[in-house]
Structure formats: C-alpha cells, structure tokens
Amino acid sequence: ETETGNNVRPDAVVFLTDDRNIIIDSxxxxxxxxxxxxxxxxxxxxxxxxxxxxxxxxxxxxxSEKDYSELEEINSPDYVFMFIPIDSALTVALSNDWSIQExxxxxxxxxxxxxxxxxxxxxxxxxxRVDKQQKHAEEVANRAGLxxxxxxxxxxxxxxxxxxxxxxxxxxxxxxxxxxxGKGSLHTxxxxxxxxxxxxxxxxxxxxxxx
Length: 211
Prior knowledge:
It is rod-shaped, with a radius of gyration of 44 Å. It is an alpha/beta fold. It contains 6 helices and 4 strands, in the order E-E-H-H-E-H-H-E-H-H.
C-alpha cells in the first residue's frame, strides 16, 4: 500500500544490498505484437505495429500512475522497470517510434527485456556475495578487536599480580632477615633461651627462606 492509500502490487522485487529495491512490472500486453508478427500483408502489419506501440505507451502511463516508488513496505529506486518478455517486441517498437523512450524517461519508467533481467540478477547475486564477504570480514575484525581488548586487560591484571607478588617477596625477605639474621635476631634470642633451659613442646627450627 502506498502512502496515499492506493493498493498496488508489483510483479517482482529485486532486493539490493544497499537497502534499495528494483521494482519490476510485467503486465504489458503483447497481443498486438503477436498479430504484427503473424500478419500476412503490409497494411495489417502497419496497423498492428501502431497498436503495439500504442499499447506500450498506455502501459507506461498506467505504471506511472501506480506510484510503486511510494510503497511503504519497500525502498524503491527512482525508476520502475517495465518487463517486456520478448526483446524484439521492444526493439521494433522503439525503432519505429522513439517517443516511447522519451515518454518512459519522463514517467521514470525503464524498459527491461530478458537479457537485461538476467544481467541485473547476476549483478545482484554478485553484490550480495561481496556484501556477505565484507560483513564476514567486519565480524572477524570486530571479534579480533574484542580479543585484543580482553588480552590487554588480562595482561594488565597479570602485571599487577606480579608486582604484588614481588612486593610480598620483598616484605618476606625483610621479615626473614629480622627474624633470623644477626645476634639480636628473634630466632637467636630464642635459641639462647632454649640453651638456658627454657623448654617448649617443640624444638626450635630456623625459619626457611623462600630462595
């Protein structure tokens, strides 16, 4: 449904990678073209060709009035593509009346034949493959960035642990020296007391160093 409330339904929509869409209408009538091809005399051919050209022009005008570009559900380009299933049907019409193309340009309608459709579909498929690869590369890059951040945080925390351990080692060494080294150390004094006859339940043993 368009913003103005009109109900329109395109025959096909090609979704592009940049959130844009190609709208395709394939309702053009080729009845007059078939009669032109099957006509036996020149007068009939001229008459049917004129009808064929008129049919295309009328459909261009009808398409421009449908406001496919105003559909709320999809993001459409400026042009609506009018699909003509037989390449020669478009060629013969344009070669005999170029004003068809001028009218289409004015109404923002682009002609599409099977050759054009196949080219657009192949191009669109390629664009989606490239888009998928780019998104995958971006995802890998994002994950790598998160991993680097985690590693940086871990490395910083590990360094802090090392610093704390080093501080603890230094403190232990100082305490150990005060406890065991020199005549005035606490351990030496306790040994002297033991030698003097003071006995505990356990015999004294010298505190071990961490080195």
